[in-house]
Amino acid sequence: MCIIFFKFDPRPVSKNAYRLILAANRDEFYHRPSKVADFWGNNNEILSGLDMEEGKEGGTWLGISTRGKLAALTNYLQPRLDKDARGRGELVTHFLTTDMDSLSYLKRVSAEGHLYNGFNLITADLRQLPDPAIEDQGKEYVQPILNKYAAVCVRCPDYGTRTNTVILLDVEGNVTFTERSMLDKDPTRWETRTHEFRLQS
């Protein structure tokens, strides 16, 4: 089960404080192909990992843009998955590449949500914190899940936590994006990368 923790303070008192702190796990089958986080897009303005599963290429679970758009996605377990459903990762990719604000985008997604298997989606316009759409999240319904998938770090034979991500945004618009990724489907081998940039004014 993927987990996202975040805290935001639109007007921190201290100059050394962060407006946003986000930490996330991506739990996924080890054999599912993906790319580690790096910049992409028309002007290398988007930073995210990318799903490379056939038919789902280009989707992502977590990303941020230099224009201040952030989105994160978790799936929730269902008794049966619809094999013909659209890839949920495109929900994040579409938000990062569109000019729509968070609230408008989430309204559109709510009308099209039936096209996907179950998900939770967080979007934010970091140059418009706090985002009222975020404050409204989490009011739908909670589905019981298996205990082994409810840990902060999931470790099963073929499935588990593959990526840990921390995003920091300071009061001056500086972003630090740190990702720790499993190497070669091996839970004992990890690589950490850090990207830093400043939000465009």
Question: Brief description of this entry?
Answer:
This protein has 3 helices and 10 strands. It has helices at 89-97, 102-112, 132-135, and strands spanning 3-8, 18-29, 34-40, 46-51, 62-65, 69-75, 119-125, 159-170, 174-183, 186-198.
Alpha-carbon Rg, integer: 16 Å
- The helix tally amounts to 3
Number of strands: 10
Approximately how much beta-strand content do the residues carry?
35-45%
Mean pLDDT: 84
Poorly predicted segments = 130-135, 137-146
CA distance, first residue to last residue? 36 Å
Largest sheet: 5 strands, antiparallel
Strand order of the largest sheet: 1-2-8-9-10
Please state the overall shape, judged from the principal axes of the Cα atoms.
globular
| Class per helix and strand makeup | mainly beta
Q: How many domain regions?
A: 1
Helix content: 10-25%
Order of helices and strands: EEEEEEHHEHEEE
